């Protein structure tokens, strides 16, 4: 009989005494070493790997393997057996990092979110802190506490990121943040969830693993969507409405400003997702210059307003989800 952690590295669950049903097991084609000295079973996949390597990386595995085994304990090909409740795909990612010496975050390539999630889940559960923390660092950088300079829309922000993911995967990111108590990731990740329509409810499936938001995060997003939509409307108002030209170009400029304002209101109300409160208006303003160019002074004022409004939007992002995040920018009114 072997003992494996369940859910938390601090909590243990005694495994059953059932003999391994070898006929239903599939040996991992990638991680079955003939001189391995422990067999780990996850789902229907069996891995024959090395106790010493796992023990060095993980105090949880170290403690697990140190427990004396009874005479009638499960064995496969002479190796003691440990049954784990993890997904086999999660273990494969960690074994690749551990046994293949793979650099998981090489420059110039995009790491799939499923890989990052596996490293965090297994790293967290088995206290393999190097893997967990390296993967969390990638998410912290992608979901930071400062408004990223490269952010124009959430979709393009993710498309240009070092992580291979789309908006639906922010559900996984939220769950990883909750698992590891990494609050700083949550505001932008929940913002990403608010850009979803049906998938906000139905969830996302990657490599056979299905992720949905918890009920409380789902409720926070439903409320957040409304708040973001209202904030987007206020942003348009703050950037464009009541612009007056005080330069010598007076009337011609004012007409252009009125046209820009009218089109901005149309754009904001007609173009989904209406919860895209953080979207930059720089592209819109640039586009307007072709036919409705204001004077240079008013153009500078518009750009400054846009910058200030988006900074303030970022400042209020945690509040949209009733979060308090240590280190989040407090005062962006300058
Ligand atoms: Zn003007």
Automatic annotation (TrEMBL):
Organism of origin: Obba rivulosa
Source domain of life: Eukaryota
Region of interest called Disordered, as start-end residue ranges on this chain: 1-24
Record's protein name: BTB domain-containing protein
């Amino acid at each position: 009989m072997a003992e494996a952690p369940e859910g938390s590295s601090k909590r243990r669950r005694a495994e059953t005494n059932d003999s391994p049903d070898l006929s239903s097991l599939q040996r991992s084609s990638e991680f079955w070493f003939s001189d391995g000295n422990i067999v780990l079973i996850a789902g229907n996949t069996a891995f024959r790997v090395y106790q010493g390597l796992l023990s060095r990386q993980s105090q949880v595995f170290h403690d697990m393997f140190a427990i004396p085994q009874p005479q009638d304990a499960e064995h496969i090909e002479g190796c003691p057996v440990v049954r784990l409740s993890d997904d086999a795909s999660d273990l494969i990612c960690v074994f690749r990092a551990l046994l293949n010496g793979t650099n998981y975050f090489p420059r110039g390539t995009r790491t799939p979110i499923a890989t990052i999630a596996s490293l965090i889940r297994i790293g967290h559960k088995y206290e393999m802190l190097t893997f967990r923390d390296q993967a969390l660092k990638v998410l912290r950088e992608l979901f930071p506490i400062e408004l990223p300079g490269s952010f124009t829309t959430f979709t393009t922000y993710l498309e240009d990121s070092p992580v291979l993911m789309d908006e639906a995967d922010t559900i996984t990111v939220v769950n990883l943040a909750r698992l590891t108590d990494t609050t700083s990731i949550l505001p932008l990740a929940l913002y990403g969830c608010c850009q979803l329509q049906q998938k906000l409810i139905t969830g996302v499936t990657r490599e056979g693993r299905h992720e949905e938001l918890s009920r409380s995060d789902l409720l926070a997003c439903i409320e957040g969507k409304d708040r973001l939509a209202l904030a987007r409307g206020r942003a348009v108002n703050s950037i464009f409405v009541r612009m007056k030209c005080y330069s010598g170009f007076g009337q011609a400029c004012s007409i252009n400003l009125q046209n820009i304002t009218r089109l901005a209101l149309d754009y904001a109300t007609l173009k989904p997702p209406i919860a895209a409160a953080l979207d930059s208006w720089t592209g819109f303003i640039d586009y307007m210059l072709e036919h409705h160019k204001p004077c240079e002074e008013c153009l500078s004022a518009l750009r400054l307003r846009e910058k200030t409004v988006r900074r303030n939007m970022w400042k209020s992002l945690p509040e949209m989800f009733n979060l308090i995040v240590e280190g989040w920018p407090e005062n962006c009114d300058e």
